[in-house]
Design a protein that fits this description.
The complex is a heterodimer of chains A (223) and B (167). In chain A, strands 2, 5, 10, 11 and 12 form a five-stranded mixed sheet that branches. A four-stranded antiparallel sheet of chain A has the order 4-3-8-9, with no helix packed on it. Chain A has one domain: Sandwich (Protocatechuate 3,4-Dioxygenase, subunit A). By secondary structure, chain A is mainly beta. Chain B has 167 residues and is mainly β. The chains are: A mainly beta (223), B mainly beta (167). At the A-B interface, strand 1, helix 1, strand 3, strand 9 and strand 12 of A face helix 1, strand 5, strand 6 and strand 10 of B. Strand 1 of chain A pairs parallel with strand 10 of chain B. Chain A: InterPro entries: Intradiol_dOase_C, Intradiol_dOase_core, Intradiol_RC_Dioxygenase, PCDO_beta_N, Protocat_dOase_b. Chain A: Belongs to the intradiol ring-cleavage dioxygenase family. Chain A: Keywords: Dioxygenase, Oxidoreductase.
Chain lengths: 223, 167
C-alpha cells in the first residue's frame, strides 16, 4: 500500500484542476529511471546548511537543529545526495513576492538551505522554527509549521519532495495537505524532538529521517 | 516505510531555483538545443508555480558521461513557460532517444513523471515504451521540432492530458 497521497485530494483545492484524470501507465524501468543525477559538491557550500545568518545578522525566532538520515527502502544509507530545504520564517512569512501574509520579513533569515548527506546518509542543518501561516484553502485555514524538503536519491525514481512537521501541532487535524497522506503513514512526516541534538543554551534539536523508495527494479536494457 | 510525498507549495522557487538550473550544457555548446514548453491545468490555465526537471543520457547514449550533467531544472514563469538548454541524447539500447521529465507544482501532492521523445526520430516507431501508449495519446510524448530546438507542452489534466507513467 502506497504511503504517498492520492493526487486528487479535493480537500486541498489546488489538486482539483491539477491532478491528472488518467491513471499513470506502467513503465518497465530502464537506465533512465534507475540512474539519477550526481550533483556533488558543486552547488553546495558549508554555510548553506545554516539558514539563520543572512546579511550579517542573526535570524529571529526559536533556533533549532534539524538532522536525520536518508535511507532507501532496503535500509541502506543514501550518501552524498543533495538535500534542499525551504521554509517560512519564525513569523510565518516566506521571502517570496507572492506571499502577502501580514507578518514581518526577517532580513537575517535566508529561508533556504542546501547540504549533502555524508557517507552514512546523515544530514544536519540549523534554522529557526517556522511559524504557522494562513492560506486561502478554506475558512480559518492555517498551515501547520513545516519545512519543505527535496531529496534526489540515487535513481530518478527515488526523487522526493516532502514536508517535515513538528510534534503535537494543534493544526494537524485541520490541514488537508497533511491529511492527504494515508493515515498509517502520516507520522512519518513528523520530526521527533531529539534532546541529544539540542545544543546547550543555543538550540532545540529535532530528528527527521527520510526513507526513499527502492531502486532495485530490473533494468529493461541489457547493460 | 517510504516517506510520503507532499506538494512543493507555491513558493518552491525559494529553495529549488538555481541560476544554472536550466543549463544542462552551456548556451554555446556545439549542438545544443532548447527544450521549451508550457504547462496547463484542467481548465486550460497556465501553471505559474511549477518546476520541470529533466534527466537524460548524453549524445553517446550513456548516463553519467564525464562533463555532461544530464540534469536540468527550470521553474515556470508568469506565462507558465519553461526552457532547458541541453544536448539531444543518443539512442539507448533498444529505445529511441528520450528524456525523463518530471513536474512538481502547487497542487501536485506527488511529482508526475513523463518522457519526452523527439518528432524527428524514426526509432520512435519501435520504441518499447511508446508501444505501450494508446496511439491517440502518443502525440503527448513527442516534442515538435522548432527553430532552436523542440517544443514539449505538458497538460496536467483534461482532453489533451499528457501521458504520465508510474515509476
Amino acid at each position: 500500500m502506497s504511503a504517498h497521497p492520492p493526487l486528487l485530494s479535493p480537500g486541498y483545492k489546488s489538486t482539483i484542476l491539477r491532478a491528472p484524470s488518467e491513471a499513470p501507465l506502467l513503465l518497465a524501468q530502464s537506465m533512465t529511471e534507475l540512474t539519477g543525477p550526481v550533483l556533488g559538491e558543486g552547488p553546495v557550500a558549508a554555510a548553506d546548511a545554516d539558514l539563520t545568518l543572512g546579511q550579517g545578522g542573526e535570524a529571529q525566532g526559536q533556533r533549532i537543529v534539524v538532522h536525520g538520515q536518508v535511507r532507501d527502502a532496503d535500509g541502506r544509507p543514501v550518501r552524498n545526495t543533495l538535500l534542499e530545504v525551504w521554509q517560512a520564517n519564525a513569523a510565518g512569512r516566506y521571502l517570496h513576492k507572492w506571499d502577502r501574509h501580514d507578518a514581518p520579513l526577517d532580513p537575517h533569515f535566508t529561508g533556504l538551505g542546501r547540504t549533502l548527506t555524508d557517507a552514512d546518509g546523515h544530514y544536519r542543518f540549523v534554522t529557526v522554527k517556522p511559524g504557522a501561516y494562513p492560506w486561502g484553502n478554506h475558512p480559518n485555514a492555517w498551515r501547520p509549521a513545516h519545512i519543505h524538503f527535496s531529496v534526489f536519491g540515487q535513481a530518478f525514481t527515488q526523487r522526493l519532495v516532502t514536508q517535515m512537521y513538528f510534534p503535537d501541532d494543534p493544526l494537524f487535524r485541520y490541514d488537508p495537505i497533511y491529511h492527504s497522506v494515508p493515515e498509517f503513514a502520516r507520522d512519518r512526516l513528523v520530526a521527533a524532538f531529539d534532546l541529544t541534538a539540542t545544543v546547550e543554551l543555543w538550540a532545540l534539536g529535532f530528528r527527521f529521517d527520510i526513507v526513499l523508495s527502492g531502486a532495485s527494479a530490473t533494468p529493461m536494457e541489457t547493460r | 516505510m517510504s516517506t510520503p510525498s507532499q506538494t512543493v507549495g507555491p513558493y518552491l522557487s525559494i529553495g529549488l531555483t538555481w541560476d544554472s538550473g536550466p543549463y544542462v550544457v552551456s548556451p554555446d555548446a556545439p549542438g545544443a538545443v532548447w527544450l521549451r514548453g508550457e504547462i496547463r491545468d484542467g481548465a486550460g490555465e497556465v501553471v505559474q508555480d511549477a518546476l520541470v526537471e529533466t534527466w537524460q543520457a548524453g549524445p553517446s547514449g550513456e548516463f553519467h558521461t564525464a562533463g555532461f550533467r544530464g540534469f536540468g531544472r527550470c521553474p515556470t514563469d508568469d506565462d507558465g513557460r519553461w526552457a532547458i538548454r541541453t544536448l539531444k541524447p543518443g539512442a539507448l539500447s533498444g529505445q529511441a532517444p528520450h528524456i525523463a521529465v518530471t513536474v512538481f507544482a502547487r497542487g501536485l501532492l506527488h511529482r508526475v513523471y513523463t518522457r519526452l521523445y523527439f518528432a524527428d526520430e524514426p526509432a520512435n516507431e519501435s520504441d518499447p515504451v511508446l508501444a505501450t501508449v494508446p496511439a491517440t495519446r502518443r502525440p503527448t510524448l513527442i516534442a515538435a521540432r522548432t527553430g532552436d530546438g523542440y517544443r514539449f507542452d505538458i497538460t496536467l489534466q483534461g482532453p489533451d492530458e499528457t501521458v504520465f507513467f508510474a515509476v
